Amino acid sequence: MIGDKSIVAFELGDNVDGSDELFELDIWVLNEHVTCEDNIAYLKSLVHYISYDYGTDRDILKYKKYFKSLSVEDAHRFILSTRDSNSEYYDIENDQIYPNQQYLDWGPNTDNVFCFAIPKDDGVYISLEFMSPASKAGSVKCEPIDFVLFNKILRDFVSYAEQKI
Question: Average per-residue pLDDT in the chain?
Fold first, then answer.
C-alpha cells in the first residue's frame, strides 16, 4: 500500500485476466474506500489523470476569498454550485473554481465522488462526497490534511504505477 488511508492511499493489485493494461486498484481518501464500485483501472489513463492533479501549476489558494466565511462543507457545496445552472454562482470566475479545486477526477474509478481541496485560514481541507453507492451518498466528509504529503503520496503512487505500465 502506498499512502495513508486517512489522507489518500492506493493499493495496486494484480493485472486482470492477463491484461497488461487493466489492474485491480483500491483507493482510500479520508478513510473512505473510494473505489468501492469500480476497482478495475486502466492504469495508463489513471496515472495520466493523477499526474495532472499534482503536476499542474494550479494555485488552490486562488479562490480562497470565496471560502473565507464558509464552513468547509459549505465551501464544498459552493464549489458544486458553480456548475449548477440554477445557482446564482453558476459559471463565476469563468467556470475555473470547480476544476481548480477538484481532485480525484481520475476517470471511471472515481466517478462516484466529488472531492475538493479547500484552503482555510488554518490549513487545507479535503472534502469528499459520494454520489453512489446509496449507502454513502449525500453527506460531505471534511478533514484537514497535510497538503504537501497528499501530493507526495500522489507522486509516489504514479512513480510506482509507471513501473507496471
Answer: 95
Q: Which three cell numbers stand for residue 33?
A: 474506500
The backbone torsions φ and ψ at residue 94, rounded to the nearest 5 degrees and listed phi first, read 55, 40
pLDDT in tens, 53-100: 987 788 999 999 999 999 999 999 999 999 999 999 999 999 999 999
Q: Is the peptide bond before 133 cis (omega within 30 degrees of 0)?
A: yes
Q: Which residue has the cell 481541496?
A: 117
Q: CA nearest 147: which of 71, 54, 75, 9?
A: 54
Query: Is pTM beyond 0.85 here?
Result: yes
**Number of neighbours of residue 53 by Cβ within 10 angstroms:** 20
Say which residue the cell 507526495 belongs to.
Answer: 152
Selection from 123, 127, 103, 116 nearest residue 51 by Cα: 103
- Give the E-state strand segments of 5-91 in sequence order: 8-15, 22-29, 32-33, 40-42
